[in-house]
Every structure is written in C-alpha cells, then in structure tokens.
Design brief:
The protein is an alpha/beta fold. It has helices at residues 36-43, 82-92, 110-116, 164-172, 190-199, 213-222, 268-277, 328-339, 343-348, 352-357, and strands at 7-11, 14-17, 20-23, 26-29, 32-34, 49-52, 57-60, 62-67, 69-70, 73-74, 98-106, 131-132, 135-138, 178-183, 203-206, 226-227, 256-260, 282-285, 297-301, 304-309, 312-315, 375-378, 384-389, 392-396. The strands form 5 sheets. Strands 8, 11, 12, 13, 14, 15, 16, 17 and 18 form a 9-stranded parallel sheet that branches. The protein has a 6-stranded mixed sheet with strand order 3-2-7-22-23-24, with no helix packed on it.
Length: 397
C-alpha cells in the first residue's frame, strides 16, 4: 500500500541491490524504499521530486557495531554527559557514511553500566545524527589474560550460585537498551550466561578470550553468533588448536566476526585469510575511540588514559594498542584494498552483514522494497558524497 507522503525518485545512479550493482532508479516515500511498479500500476501515482545522482553509486548506509566514542567523547567515561556524547558522535559519523551504530561500553563497574545504559536509548536517526541501534557491552565477563586495554579490576566472574538474571541485573541494571554482549566462553559458568542472553534476544559475541576451539564451539552451540574484533585480544591460531579463529572454518555458518580494518589492528594478510575463509560472515567495525576525528594527544577509553601518536592509539605510557581512530569509510576502503574483494563484497561487510548480526536485514543494510531509506552516495573510490537517513539528506560534501 502506497504511503501518503511525497515520492522521491533517485535517478542517474547505480544501486547495490541483491548482491550486485545495477543501473536503476530508486524510489522513496515516507522514509521507506518503495516499489515503483506497484506505485505506478496499482496506485496510479508518479514521483513528486527527482534527484539527479550524477552517476553516483547508492549503497545502504554503513552500520558500525562497535564504536566506543569519538570527537572527544567516550561512552564509558563521560558518564554525566552520556546523552550529549551520543548526539555528538551520532552527528559526527554522518560524513563517514554511518547511518546506524551501537554505542560500545568497555569493561566497567556496575555503577557505570547502571548510569550509562539507561541513557543510551534506541532511536531512529535523522538530521541530528545516525540511528542508535542499542548498546554493545564489551565486558565485563572477559578473560583477565586477554583484557587488552580493559580495566582488570572491573572484570567480573560469573557466579555459579546466582541466577543469570540476577547477575545481569546486578551488573548492567537492565537489558532493555542492550543488543550485544561480548564475553569469554571459557570463563566459569559462561556457557550458561550465553544461553540466558541468547534467549533474551541479545547477540552474544565471543571475545577478549583465551578459549580453545572446543569451548568456542560450545559457546556457539549455546547461542553465540558473533566474534568481537577477530585476531585481537584472543587466543592465537595454532594448527592443533585454532581457538576462536577456528570457528571461521566450522560448519556453523551463522557465526559472524568483526574485523578492525584500520591498517593497524589486523594485517592485510589476516584480513584476506578471514574474508576468503568465511566471506558471508565478515563484518567491518571501527572499534573507534574518543580520539576519532581529533589530533594526536591524550584522550580516554573508559577509566584509562590513551595516547594517540603517529596515527595510532596506545594505552598512555605503554605500547599496547587500544582501539582505532580510523573512520568507517576509510576502513571499508582499506578492507577492499587489502583483500582484493569486489565492490559489492566491500560494501556488504559494512551494510548487510552487520544488519544480519542484529537480525534487522529487512529494515537496514539493504535497498530492498520496504526497507528504511538509509542511503549513501559513493564515488568510484568509495568516498562518501552524501548521506541520507529515512529519505532525507543529512550530509553532503
């Protein structure tokens, strides 16, 4: 059934649709992508506005499942300014082509979670910024041996004598705004927690973990469907025990994995190995920090100070890499160059695949009829020319 609003026709463009790039027009009404044949033949309507795309490639907007902050804001640090920080980051990532994201909280204490999580509400984006899909809690049920830049004192065990529901409440406060939880499956009682969270429709991601392949498989069998920043902060691949990395070649094809394709965290050869092993499960994330969009200097990741120097972020005073300062559009270009994949494949790791992780692939990450009209215009170098949310232009070069 056609909507009531004005119909916009995007013409002189190519579309990423059905795993291919085709030359076609795109029709939008009431913030949704519509079928022009139904509008014309069934409802006898034509377009009201026409947008000349000047030969641009139209892709669904990018979706970032792991974003710790940016532009001077850290979601786990600036507790009293949470709403302001979310708005600032949501607006700042529009030029990067990101139309939806998951604000990410690193391992923190219950006092932080209980204050911050209720303040990060799921909301549809627009001119004010990208859509907030829900919170990604990266911790605190992780391995001390693979904590990376996370705070050791805030890592929490899973108590065998308490119910998972009670422990979740004691840790996070509530699950209402949470969509992803990263945990280590080898931790005592973690498998029960995975099963509980999965039944609550929370995406469970394996990460910051020293798990072997057997425990990793058990985690997937209990409901885990994602891997947090593959290769980073996890047991290294070994031919007799490939660890979490071994899930890429398992028969569990519903497992997706995040890759930080910033040219620093993951070597191009590792990007190629991962993508060629399980291309349908590849998801690019930024894991970006408060220093995203800022010059070298001292910034924050949760309760810890970080130092950005020569384009790389470290825990202050150490050589421990602690996150990225590379924006999403750059990560997609780096991924494409490093893997030698097609343009379609490069775009889908930042659009369709992250949407599939959250099971919203009929709504976002696609240009199919009925989906949200969250679009980006790209040139042949995959540089972002325009960003649209719900059929409205929110950024233009």
């Amino acid at each position: 059934m056609a909507g009531q609003g004005l119909i916009t026709k995007f013409t002189n463009c190519c579309l990423l649709r059905d795993h291919q790039i085709i030359k076609d027009d795109l029709w939008v009404q009431d913030g949704k992508i519509i079928d022009p044949m139904e509008v014309f033949y069934k409802h006898k309507k034509v377009y009201d506005l026409k947008v000349d795309c000047e030969g641009a490639l139209i892709s669904p907007g990018y979706i970032d499942l792991q974003l710790n902050g940016g532009f001077g804001c850290d979601f786990s640090h600036d507790i009293e300014k949470t709403e302001e920080c979310v708005r600032k980051v949501a607006k700042g990532i529009l030029p990067h082509g990101v139309t939806s994201f998951c604000p990410t909280l690193v391992t923190s204490g219950p006092d932080v979670y209980k204050k911050v999580i209720p303040r990060i509400m799921k909301q549809q984006g627009g001119e004010e910024g990208a859509s907030v899909l829900g919170v990604h809690c990266e911790g605190p049920f992780i391995s001390p041996e693979k904590k990376g830049a996370h705070c050791l004192s805030s890592i929490k065990d899973i108590d065998q004598d308490s119910s998972q529901a009670l422990q979740v409440t004691d840790t996070y406060g509530c699950l209402e705004n949470i969509v992803i939880v990263t945990l280590a499956p080898e931790m005592p009682n973690a498998l029960n927690m995975i099963e509980f969270l999965a039944k609550e429709n929370i995406v469970v991601s394996l990460g910051h973990s020293n798990a072997n392949i057997d425990i990793s498989i058990k985690g997937v069998e209990k409901g885990a469907t994602f891997i947090t920043h593959l290769f980073n902060a996890m047991s290294a691949f070994h031919h007799r025990d490939p660890g979490i990395v071994g899930l890429l070649a398992s028969h569990y094809k519903n497992v997706f994995f995040g890759l930080i394709a910033d040219g620093i965290h993951t070597h191009p050869a590792a990007l190629r190995i991962a993508h060629r092993t399980h291309s349908d499960g590849t998801v690019v994330v930024t894991d970006a920090l408060s220093a995203l969009g800022l010059p070298d200097g001292i910034h924050y990741l949760g309760s810890k100070s970080i130092e950005v120097k020569n384009g790389c972020a470290y825990l202050a005073g150490t050589d421990t890499i602690c996150g990225s300062i590379t924006n999403f559009a750059q990560c997609i270009r780096i991924f494409k160059h490093s893997t030698g994949c097609s343009t379609v494949e490069a775009l889908e790791v930042g659009t369709l695949h992250p949407a599939q992780v959250l099971k919203i692939e009929n709504q976002k990450g696609t240009l199919k009829f009925g989906a949200d009209a969250d679009l980006i215009f790209l040139n042949e170098n995959l540089e972002v020319l325009q960003t649209w949310i719900s059929g409205k232009c929110v950024f233009k070069t």
